[in-house]
């Protein structure tokens, strides 16, 4: 583990290796792939939020001259039920299969029922429309409270609630109710000087990646299943497909194409098994690309939620007790990210007495998928607005209140974990010292407008997970870097920098490639804020392996026992050779130098992040404008600061959209009314200002460069910060996301 | 019944066969094999498919290929001068104005159209002009800065 | 999209012949509405008739004595960039820069926005406020229709079989004439108007001599509220007179609740936006917000 704090390359901003391809349109994303004999697939989807499938008749469809194959759930090979780990949680195989192609029931509008392969995309969707499905619609439930109510329609007849870890017998829409307890919150509330309790709700929102899901599958003549996917986790796809289709893992190869965003939503499988089955039936490669409507209706959004948070404090601002009730919508299948929400809800604070109840509730909406710090933004919306209220009532500065109670090394969480070295205090102090925090708000832009400033902080624990890396030293001293982490945001360059730092090379000397599942060792998803942390660590270790081997080559060349390596130069006595010079000689000395490493690191070390935001509210329309936004985050060590800033800015703007305008409008019958980018309103360039960033570096003690993952924590606090700013401007406490103009106006008029 | 269409594509004559119902986006990607222009939504709301048609910024997903007979079409594949990147392309790379890159071709076309019309745009002008191009990764900050930097460089040339 | 044939007639006469022979054909200008509808299956057609080659439909003609004629297929960007239109009809140039975003404006036409007849159409309230008239060609010859009569139901216009819009005519503004379109959208661009208000006022000798107010998104069609404009006539443009007009406009609104907004919010916005739009034309020094 390196203890150097001065770096040659780490912390600089070299151009990314895939830049030229991406700005010229040469980079190949999934939908760009072409192949001889390619067929096109389309999915038939249920129009009902909840319905039994009475019958499926494919006769007419199969008679269409351009139809090449049709598949339904009946085409899945029969396998025993088992639990599959997708990389972000465990799920029964039948649920994953059921979401890919419905069996017996459809559980949400957009639920896939059949797949068709044809000679063109147009023909495929026309043929899919010819499949005759008879549905018997059932009543639906669309929110956690209604799904939990006695007598609610049940989605799964076999679903039983795991209550405090013990199975129960009654059918339920709640798959899991857990409780985390620390100390005695009831007793502590009785001793509190001030208690604030609020009930809040958040709407369903989608990750909103610009590239729809796409896959090309070829069940090859040699019996291997080859897949080219837009995915965050090639190995997850490989292993899950192998499970679903009863294949040995070695028969499946997954190639990650360049990917147009994921944010967690491209970890689950959707069209991949369907394309594979269609390819098996036709003997041709089959490509399936979702339309935007299908992405919104048929792929996982993040849970909507019903949350109650109660916090008790002493007059001096010490937080003494906290309670949270978190009921999260899982969508059609269990697996709402309510457990991470419970971990994060009070994680930023040292509160000795906590009770957290989490409920994982199925509803008739698309099955939820992870979305950037899944579960945490909802929870922070509650905690951070309640704390804002406590600060207001105590007459305390909101950052001072937080600093007084900030989590530190050694602070316990209710889930049992104890923090190692973390940067919560440093993030808060950076916010406090930032010029934004003391800047004047400025005059409102017109008479009917009011301005206010809000702050909030948030936490995400980050993941470790396995990563592998191989380094090939070329004759000119350039180094090929082979890794398996889908590059969604420039990670291949940060990973290359971590190896190059060890080797004393420039970033441009590295040739990073993201490769398929045959070519690299097991590597977990690009998600969980783990890629720079874990794959970077593997690259670092692989580089050390290279150095070791190069030293051996030099020792052999110079006929010495020991060789030193420092600042890119190998030395022994009078002998010296740079890395590149030695690389040129490796061929005459011995075997090529191939370095390798694989890691599965613990100690990911969570990231704290905070937001200072100024808003202006038009008191006659309820419209909130973001005037100024500052994002602060502990990155541990920013390998490539531009891309750390980029993560902070991207998560911030997603948070702004979540706060102000994004939501699934559901009709009472459970249909999504706004399944397009026209009415699913993500922020445009005109809706946000520059996003100022301040990177805090509290080194993660376990990582060679001190890295903490930064991908996620930055989305956690913006909605709460904006709510607090709206309160500062208007005196209104908003208790629902999004805080769109009609709801703010309604709150204004109510006063 | 396919129609024979002749256009000027990135400065060179080009031709293709298209059914009337095929959009220009499909013709570019599937028939002419220029996959740099992307589809994000298919209904004109994300700008990933932005191209220049007779110099005008348009969404190619809402234009029929057959409509473009005789017109000039410019796509991201044509912005660079041989192996020399356009100042916008360079500025996007140098300033980390792309993360996943799927929206980048659209933003490059839109920015190019803006700077042809307004070589010294203000930040509000840039944001207004680019409002039809959605990005979900960057939060737009570095994109706007890259456009400002490229504009300055182009003015200096 | 399902298959269709495509024709691009170069003259009015040929277009009329084609449309007469193919009653289920649909005309095409910018395509930013039609193609969306064909893709979603909301509309179907065996024949798309592209009108963009016909000279009368492409032309912008500014007659200093008579007024402005804009061809039906003229794209928004052409209107926004046209020096004379900007000078004489600044509100019109502005509204052409509001529809959709930049790439939509590169293609979408004012004529198409009118013919698409959405209750939320951004251009129509202003067209009404400008007393615009639609020039229509059909089997029976040419006819002129006041824009406030053009949209008859959501998505349905007054055109009969074989008819199509040739151009839109705008009379010359009188001295003391100002117009403005103000809309409310939840984001800052791209959205369909939750409420839109187009106003025009003419002030002579300190009194309002003419005023027209029209609303978008609060009725099945864009709504010309004659009484609201009439209430200003003969009065000085005081805050009270403006408030009265805004109140009449608000009372005339018949909004529905849909996924874009609840009805009472729309009704509330009507009053706010009408007042702000009238401030823009009558008291430009008063900041108008939004």
List keywords for this structure.
heterotrimer; A: 751 residues; alpha+beta; Aldehyde Oxidoreductase, domain 4; Aldehyde Oxidoreductase, domain 3; 3 domains; 8-stranded mixed β-sheet; 7-stranded mixed β-sheet; 20 helices; globular; C: 290 residues; Uridine Diphospho-n-acetylenolpyruvylglucosamine Reductase, domain 3; Enolase-like, domain 1; 4-stranded antiparallel β-sheet; 12 helices
Description:
The complex is a heterotrimer of chains A (751), B (157) and C (290). Chain A is α+β, with helices and mostly antiparallel strands. Chain A has three domains: 19-27 and 464-599, Aldehyde Oxidoreductase, domain 4, CATH 3.30.365.10; 33-138 and 211-260 and 266-298, Aldehyde oxidase/xanthine dehydrogenase, a/b hammerhead (Aldehyde Oxidoreductase, domain 3, Alpha-Beta Complex); 305-462 and 605-750, 2-Layer Sandwich (Aldehyde Oxidoreductase, domain 4). Helices cover 28% and strands 26% of the residues of chain A. The longest helix of chain A is centred in the last third of the chain and has 28 residues, at 531-558. The relative contact order of chain A is 0.13. Chain B has five helices and five strands, in the order ββαβββαααα. Chain B has a five-stranded mixed β-sheet with strand order 2-1-5-3-4, with helices on both faces. Helices cover 34% and strands 16% of the residues of chain B. Chain B has two domains: 3-78, Beta-grasp domain (Ubiquitin-like (UB roll)); 87-156, Orthogonal Bundle (DNA polymerase, domain 1). With 290 residues, chain C is of the alpha+beta class. Chain C folds into three domains: 5-45, no CATH class; 56-171, Uridine Diphospho-n-acetylenolpyruvylglucosamine Reductase, domain 3 (2-Layer Sandwich); 177-282, CO dehydrogenase flavoprotein, C-terminal domain (Enolase-like, domain 1, 2-Layer Sandwich), CATH 3.30.390. Chain C is built from twelve helices and 14 strands. Chain C has helices at residues 12-21, 34-40, 55-58, 76-81, 83-88, 90-96, 102-105, 110-116, 124-129, 226-230, 239-252, 263-282, and strands spanning 5-7, 26-28, 47-50, 60-63, 67-71, 133-138, 141-146, 151-153, 156-157, 164-171, 177-184, 195-204, 207-216, 223-224. The longest helix of chain C has 20 residues, at 263-282. The chains are: A alpha+beta (751), B alpha+beta (157), C alpha+beta (290). Chains in contact: A-B, A-C, B-C.
